Amino acid sequence: MPIVTPDLCDDYPEIQVVEPGFRNFGGVSAFGGEIVTVKCFEDNSVVKEQVGLPGNGRVMVVDGGGSRRNALLGDMLAEKAASNGWAGLVIYGCIRDVDVIGETQLGVQALGTHPRKTDKRGIGDLNVPVTFGGVTFHPGHYIYADNNGIVVSEQALNVD
C-alpha cells in the first residue's frame, strides 16, 4: 500500500502536518522514513557529505532557511542519495536540475527551483532539531510525503 498522507491523517490524528508550500520534484512521488536533519544556509556541504553515506531508507530534512537564492540539491547529489539508499529529501529551500531529478528514483520535495549552486564553506549542523512549516523536525522521528503534503510523527506509522 503506498503512502497516502490524507489516509495517514485520518488514521493517526495526532500526527503533525507541515504547512503547504512544498512541491514534489523527485522520481518517487510518495516516500517516508526516519528523519535525519541538516541545518544549513546557502551552503550544502553537509548535504553533500550525508548523501555519500548509507541512507538505509531514511529521509533527509534540510532546513535551508527558506532561501530562494541558490539550490541545495542538484542532479549529482540526488543520484548519489538514490544510489546510497536514501528514501528522499525534504528541502526548505530550492533545488536545481529538476528534469534529471524527476527521473531519479528518489523522493524530493522543495520550495522551488534555482539554477545557481551554493558555495561550499563547510558550514552546517547535522541532527539538530529544525523548525519550518509550522513543525519541528527531530532526528529519529518519522516523515511521510506525497503530492498531498508532508506529515511528521514521533513513531513509525503503519503504511503497509
Secondary structure blueprint with pairings:
Layout: H1 5-11, E1 16-17, E2 23-24, E3 31-39, H2 45-51, E4 59-63, E5 71-73, H3 75-83, E6 88-95, H4 98-101, E7 107-113, E8 125-126, E9 130-132, E10 135-137, E11 142-146, E12 149-153
Parallel strand pairs: 3-4, 4-6, 5-6, 6-7
Antiparallel strand pairs: 1-12, 2-7, 3-8, 3-11, 9-10, 11-12
Helix pairs in contact: 2-3
Description:
This is 4-hydroxy-4-methyl-2-oxoglutarate aldolase. It is a single chain. This protein has 4 helices and 12 strands. The chain is of the alpha/beta class. The strands form 2 sheets. Strands 1, 2, 3, 4, 5, 6, 7, 8, 11 and 12 form a 10-stranded mixed β-sheet that branches. Helix 4 (98-101) links the parallel strand 6 and strand 7 (107-113). Helix 2 runs parallel beside helix 3 (75-83). The longest helix has 9 residues, at 75-83.
